[in-house]
Amino acid sequence: MKVVRLSITNFRSIKNAELLFEGHTLLIGANNVGKSTVCEALDLALGPDRLNRTTSIDEFDFYNAHYLEKAGQDGEEAKAVPLRIEVVLIEPSQAIMSKCGSHTEFWHLGEKRLLNGGEADLAKPPISVPCLRLETVGRYSLEEDEFEAKSFFSHSPDSDEEGILKEVPRWVKREFGFLYLRALRTGSRALSLERGSLLDIILRTKGIRTQLWEKTILKLKEHDVEADAAEIAPVLREIEKRLARYIPLDAPGDATKLRISELTRDHLRRTMSFFLALSTDQQHVPFAHAGTGTLNTLVLALLSFIADLKPETVIFAMEEPEIAVPPPTQRRIAQYLFSKTTQAFVTSHSPFVIERFDPSATLLLTRAVGELKAQKVSDASGLTDKEFKQFARWGLCECMLGRAAIVVEGLTELHALPVAAARMEQEESIVTAGQSLDILGATFFYADGDGNMAKFGKFFRTLGLKTFGFYDHKPNRPEKATKAIQAEYSINLEHKYKGFEDLVVTEMPVDVLWCFLKQLKENEENGEIGIPAIKPYDGDFIRKLARDALKSGKGAGWAARLFSECEYGEIPSTVLQFLREVYAALPKPPEIGDQEEVAGEVNAVHGKPH
Fold first, then answer.
1. Do 313 and 1 form a contact (C-beta atoms < 8 A)?
2. CA distances from 235 to 64, 124, 226, 240, 436 (A)
3. CA 237 → CA 148, 156, 220, 222, distances in Å?
4. Could you tell me which residues come within 8 angstroms of residue 173 by beta carbon, excluding any fewer than 6 positions away?
């Protein structure tokens, strides 16, 4: 069973959204774009325990907390504004079909839609497959003065009343096998025995009905706390005497006692905790005292236990599996999801997770004025699955999650340009507004050659990023290839030099280049480059030596070191002008006034004199 469509209206940060899925799905995007909201929506619609909480939803589960229309001036009552989440599940299991068959509809696989009336001839494989459509509606009840949410079968032909949808029973949702691991799921509930905790789900899934509570309550009741702390008894007796002045205490024996627990099942569920020993020299400690990485891995182990209990139908939503776990574990988690679940929804910023998903299974989310949209990374075109995975660790993932990509042709530029940008931030605050390119959402990306400039420019531009290109002049490049590159960049700088090293040694002063070469020789870093002990008179010879050094030291980042150690005005003018144009094209954060201005604004709001 898989989710193929998710529709969201008026839920949290999303005013409207309609997302289509084909299987395992990676959700990526900027912070606060709505990745977690998508997972929460799935949990609200499919999770068996979410709607049974005391407060399943509240004001802030509605878009902009808008859950009530204001009353009209003509005496009309205020109206509740509902939130709606609709999920379409295809290929339900036989167990679910036997219980929910009357609610079955059909999903057209090619056109990715529900079949309408009069299309019975299409309701057959391989054109269409059976599906269930569920709708969760949340609203504020004016009569009860509280929030409520319920799930219904959107197709309810056998409903007792026309137009009234049948509610989805809790036991049906349990059959769906939906599991949700939030980024903060390692809190106190995860490994306690509270209702809805992971341990509780395991016990219920296995059909275990324990007598733990009755036996434990009896033992705790029989334990005499005062016998272990005789110094407390006189204080309790004194309290009894004083209390007896106001309230008759006719019970035989002592009227007050200390107990370890409230002696109720629910209280024991909340207080029992999972202990573990992590090394041979350590005794068992509460799980919450373990490291964050251990906690996340432990919770994953429990979730895998639950998944193994429902091998035929497990839909898994997981937020940021990379938190506090090393790359090998991240890859193992991703592989587990692929092999042990029928469908997984994952949010991540980690290249080690992102590279495990094919571009066709990776959705880039964007949101504007509450409208959430998703685009397959594969639709950005130009990249094969192999190329995507190859470049995922080279900055591709970081760029995809930002606002702009600065694509450079060579490795030397990748090292040197960020250094120049950092110095510009310090030296030209008017240009940079004191902000780094990272803060402004721009990331440098190494295209690994002139031939990839157009491909990656198109890739990032199609994903909605601003694109800036910096690359060498190639006299022999076909005009068609040059135009293809130019078309993909809003700022396109094909500098006039054959290589970045030529640009550096031509535009930087000879004295600066010699100081750099002399330092290499003194540090015995010059290798096979014949740097003389005395400065040559021939400036062109010095530039040639510097060019050879920079080319041989690409991997060592010598150009970046040169940019960091020279005077700011000695950095090549072509580089600085390009970066000024990049900064000018990026939106700047709002300026913050000084203390006096802020105080004046606050006082004005509160009607106080400044």
1. yes
2. 54, 79, 11, 9, 64
3. 48, 65, 21, 20
4. 46, 47, 48, 151
- Rounded CA separation 348/364 (Å): 11
Per DSSP, the three-state class of 179 is strand
DSSP state of 76: P
Residue 126, preceding peptide bond in cis (omega within 30° of 0): yes
Q: Where are the domains of the chain?
A: 1-68+78-191+291-401, 403-610
Provide φ and ψ at 174, rounded to 5°: -65, -35
Indicate the helix (H) or strand (E) that contains 531: none
pLDDT digits (tens, 9 = 90+) for 58-87: 999 999 999 998 766 666 778 899 999 999
State the greatest distance between any 2 C-alpha atoms of the chain, in Å, as a whole number: 111
**Alpha-helix runs per DSSP H in 288-396:** 292-309, 327-340, 351-354, 385-391
Q: What is the pLDDT of residues 90-147, one digit of tens each?
A: 988 888 888 888 899 999 999 999 999 889 899 998 999 999 999 999 999 988 889 9
- Sign of torsion, CA 374 350 176 270? negative
Instruction: Please state the separation of Cα 438 from the chain's center in Å.
Output: 18
CATH says 1-68+78-191+291-401 is which class? alpha beta
CA–chain centroid gap for 30, Å, is 8
Rounded to 5°, angle at Cα 350 from 353 and 362: 55
Name the nearest CA neighbour of 406 among 451, 438, 367, 382. 438
For the four alpha carbons of 95, 305, 300 and 391, in that order, the dihedral sign comes to negative
Whole-model pTM: value is: 0.77
Beta strand 285-286 with 275-276: parallel, antiparallel or unpaired?
A: antiparallel
Question: Distance between CA atoms of 568 and 426, rounded to whole angstroms?
Answer: 10
Rounded to whole angstroms, the Cα distance separating 357 from 126 reads 26
**Helices within 393-498 (DSSP H only):** 397-400, 411-427, 429-432, 453-462, 479-486
Residues in the chain: 610
Q: For residues 170 and 147, give the distance between their C-alpha atoms in angstroms, rounded to a whole number.
A: 19
